[in-house]
């Protein structure tokens, strides 16, 4: 079935099922659920928290000696592939520098310095609590809207320039 709406035929089949007929069926369709928020600040927060949760799981997996892979859609391949993600932390002189990232950009110029790998996890959990409380909403929203504005300028048709054939000057 290619249509995203539920088919009335499926409802009839479900109601006619001997196994499922013992359940009652609602009289109204389920409300449409929107995964993404319409509020730009909340949408940016959700995106950041999603990436942060990946880092938390990645960190736990690294501590246990495993390999952490995420599924990403690759438009050039037109399919979803499993890929590794880059850590938001790096080892420097026996300590760990932890950066906050939003997309490819580092949010903090100066890193958090963790004494050990367990403290990296603590930093991530504290960042998550602050993000859920909305502490970073303004900066995330600002970065997100700046990215949207820069993407809006790309890919569109460029206006054709009119050139005076005699002088070679641009007209208008």
Looking at this protein, list some descriptive labels:
172 residues, alpha+beta, three-stranded antiparallel beta sheet, two-stranded antiparallel sheet, 9 strands, extended
Task: Break the fold down into its secondary structure elements and pairings.
Elements: H1 8-16, H2 40-63, E1 70-74, E2 79-83, E3 89-92, E4 95-98, E5 101-102, E6 105-106, E7 112-114, H3 117-132, H4 137-152, E8 162-163, E9 170-171
Antiparallel strand pairs: 1-2, 3-4, 4-7, 5-6, 8-9
Protein described:
The structure is a single chain. By secondary structure, this protein is α+β, with helices and mostly antiparallel strands. It has a domain of 97 residues. Helices cover 38% and strands 17% of the residues. The chain contains four helices and nine strands. The strands form four sheets. Strands 3-4-7 form a three-stranded antiparallel sheet, with helices on one face. A two-stranded antiparallel sheet has the order 1-2. Strand 8 and strand 9 form a beta hairpin. Helix 2 packs across helix 4. The N and C termini lie far apart (53 Å). About 3% of the residues have low confidence.
Offer a quick outline of the entry.
The protein has 172 residues and is of the alpha+beta class. The chain has a domain at 40-136.
Low-confidence stretches: 156-161
Gap between N and C termini, in Å? 53 Å
Largest sheet: 3 strands, antiparallel
Oligomer: single chain
Q: Spatial order of the strands in the main sheet?
A: 3-4-7
Structural class: alpha+beta
């Amino acid at each position: 079935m290619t249509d995203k709406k539920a088919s009335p035929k499926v409802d009839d089949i479900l109601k006619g099922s001997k196994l499922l007929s013992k359940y009652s069926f609602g009289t109204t369709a389920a409300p449409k659920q929107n995964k993404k928020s319409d509020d730009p600040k909340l949408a940016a927060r959700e995106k950041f928290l999603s990436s942060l949760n990946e880092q938390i799981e990645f960190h736990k997996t690294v501590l246990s000696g495993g390999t952490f892979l995420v599924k990403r859609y690759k438009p050039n391949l037109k399919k979803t592939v499993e890929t590794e993600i880059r850590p938001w932390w790096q080892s420097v002189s026996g300590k760990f520098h932890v950066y906050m990232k939003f997309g490819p950009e580092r949010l903090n110029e100066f890193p958090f310095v963790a004494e050990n790998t367990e403290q990296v996890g603590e930093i991530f959990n504290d960042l998550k609590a602050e993000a859920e409380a909305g502490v970073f909403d303004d900066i995330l929203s600002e970065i997100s809207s700046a990215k949207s504005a820069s993407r809006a300028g790309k890919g569109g048709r460029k206006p054709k320039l009119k050139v005076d054939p005699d002088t070679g000057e641009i007209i208008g």
